[in-house]
Amino acid sequence: MVFNKKIIKHYAMILFDYINDSNHSKVYHRSIINLYISLQKNFLLKKLMFTFFIKKNEKIIILKKIINNIFLYHFIKILILNDRIFLIEKILLEYNNIYDIKKNNIIKCILTTTIPINKTIQKMIAKKIINKKKKFIIINNINKNIIGGFVFVQIKEYKEWDFSIKRYLNEINQII
Hints:
Elements lengths: L1 H20 L3 H17 L1 H8 L5 H11 L3 H12 L6 H15 L3 E8 L5 H12 L4 E8 L6 E6 L4 E6 H11 L1
Parallel strand pairs: 1-2
Antiparallel strand pairs: 1-3, 3-4
Helix pairs in contact: 1-6, 2-6, 4-5
């Protein structure tokens, strides 16, 4: 599983680096997003890519007729030939995360609280903790087990700030 994560990041970075260096980066990015959406919505396309009943060369011929972006076609062809096509959705999702972080300067975060918090307070917390002038996508999870306070996690770098009452109680319990 850890090996797959490295492979996914590697392929996603290849996609990003190639597209970033290209003169048609917006067109390629749009094609990648459209492919991801198509895989999410089109059960038959997903089944075609993931099945073992169709030979690799037959899949490649079929995909050449479906995919109109030559770069994306060759990228998928490499995944098929290396038996890594089953990772395509995760690779495209990771690519989109890299794109958001590097191109759009977006930081994705999770804010866990005991009750829902409005967007303004979420952004204030994020700006105080991260201290960067960037855009944030914040997911507010509700977890009554933290008793009070909040836990803030920056997803990509996995940095965690735990300001929950549960943590403070555990620290006091360890001292006693």
